[in-house]
Amino acid sequence: MDISSQIDSNKAALIEFLDLHKSKFLNEWLKSIIVNGIDVYNERIFVNGGLMYSLIEKAIVGSLSELELQQLAYKIAKERLEADINIGDFVYNVNLGRSILVKHVLQSELPLKNLQVIIEDINNHFDQFCFHAVSQYTNLKNQELEDQKLFISENHKDKLAILGQISSSFVHEFRNPLTAVIGFNKLLRNEYPDLKYIDIIEHELQQLNFRITQFLHTSKAEINLKQNEEFSIKSLFHELQPLIYPSIVDIDVNLTSKIDDDLIISSNKDEIKQVLLNLLINSIDALKEKDKPRNMIIESFCSQKGIFINISNNGPAIAAEFLKTIFEPFFTTKELGTGIGLFVCKKIIEKQGGYITCQSLEELTTFSIHLPNNLVCIKTGS
């Protein structure tokens, strides 16, 4: 008998042996594998094991195509995903089946030198099966996560749109009488400049108007028709001083300002003003939670990368897990916060093509605004 005929004869004898011991193999494997009690496909595990056993028999005689192996791998990967079972358990079970099968092959009493090539072929097919199954499982899992993210994002956008419509309608109704009150307060200030508490009334009205503007910014339907204008960053902070001065004095804040005198930007002044005011108020609120000294640092400069505005305070550090979500709408760590202030800031800055970040350490928390050089950075001295 030539070598080829001998190999075929050995393979035929091995298949006969495997057919005879199939039930023994499957029962031994089933007793040893990891099975989750909540697996909705528990009844298919034994069936899938039998299918894999049959494919390995086909591989031994050389009649197995890679497509057949791949199809079974894809089928089981889908079942593992739907069962929400750890893929590591699946890989363990497959390799356990490989070990038991190789042990049974070695018990066939065929010449070891003839079995070596067959065992290598079995291992190769198990490796291919694991590769296809884990790859498909990973692809399906990633797609599932992307679908979930998309659903959450779309659901979130729908809620924001509804909130925007409600808040926009409410705020417009509320702003009409507020505008009248602000107007009459200015008339009182002009006629009675020394009237007691007039400054406090104006400050509180401006704060209320600022909060209303924040709610307006949550509406996607909001249209801002105001044109960009050139203004000095330093002068803008000067305009904000009367709004924050009472709070700074009240809690004794040491304010340090480092702003280029000749720094001019072209942007929507009211929106940038709103962003800066919100960050200043947040810094003051944080400093209220700290013992003296209470320090706040404002700095702004222009470089080749654009314009940077930093507002820092030495208040309590923001927890690391919160840094990822503080710019999300309705997230707040304040007891009476709305959770829209930083979201609005982010929205305004991104509309200008920039970005806003936060870095918080024990000694200093810094909110940084970056605006692109090609859009807004102009120096009067250049």
Automatic annotation (TrEMBL):
PANTHER family: PEROXIDE STRESS-ACTIVATED HISTIDINE KINASE MAK3 (PTHR43065:SF10), SENSOR HISTIDINE KINASE (PTHR43065). It catalyses: ATP + protein L-histidine = ADP + protein N-phospho-L-histidine. PROSITE patterns: HIS_KIN (PS50109). SUPFAM superfamilies: ATPase domain of HSP90 chaperone/DNA topoisomerase II/histidine kinase, Homodimeric domain of signal transducing histidine kinase. It is an enzyme of class 2 (transferase). Pfam families: HATPase_c, HisK_N, HisKA. This is histidine kinase. It comes from the Bacteria. Its EC number is 2.7.13.3.
